[in-house]
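--- STAGE predict ---
source: upstream dedup step, 1 unique chain passed
mode: sequence only
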Amino acid sequence: MELRTLRYFVAVAEELHFGRAAARLHMSQPPLSRAIRQLETEVGASLFHRSSAGVALTPVGAVLLGEARALLDRADLVQVRVAAAAGRSTLTVGLLGDSTDPDVTRLARAYRHRHPQVEVRVREADLTDPTCGLRARAVDVAVTRGPFDETGLTVRELRADPVGALLRADDPLARRDTLKLADLADRRWFRFPEGTDPRWQSYWNGGEPREGPVVRAVQECRQAVLWNGTVGMTLVNHEPGEGLTVVPLIDMPPSRAVVAWNAGDTDPLVGSFVRSAVTAYRA
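--- STAGE serialize ---
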């Protein structure tokens, strides 16, 4: 079995959808389907149940998924060690003001355990650049949040988090169990500076142009609400701080935690980091 074919299989097994797996692999669906059929021929058994309801792993597929992940992890380790021996042993990681996230902490611990010879440099970006410096080549890979312009980048979703309205604790709306965006229509919102990625700005403004104080960092968002009584959005599971509260917004799509890197980057350190991130967040 070729490693490339196993990567194809793992992508389909994790997405349970040939179209999404093909998009993730940056290929069209027909050659992906042919590769999986060829792999099933080599194995001598079906790896997926295919039906109008979707795709599911067979018992044989479930066994192969565990073995394939272990084999690909070992291949990644070999590539990283060879790269380190050749003098490439530094990886710069961008984080979007979210370095206290438990999954980021788990990722750091796992990556350090797996690649102790790699020096990881961290660049924490503010909220004005959701790519964390990828476009400027200031970082090799970023753990961040969507949505943003993905042109020239490869993006992999790690987790989806519900969002809510960030309010003062004494705000009349703070007593509500849930809110809709319409409940905040006449309020001043904190917003990002001019020139911020339009898709990013629009999401955190609830899809509407807003008026209010300009912020660049998480703490500035909180202080804008605390001092001015403005509103905005944040993750429901984030501790807002004293004097503030978060009320879930039931008509907002969740915020996607993602790992992103420059399209076409074949650096084994980047590839290994991406796979470590997926594993850490899946855990």
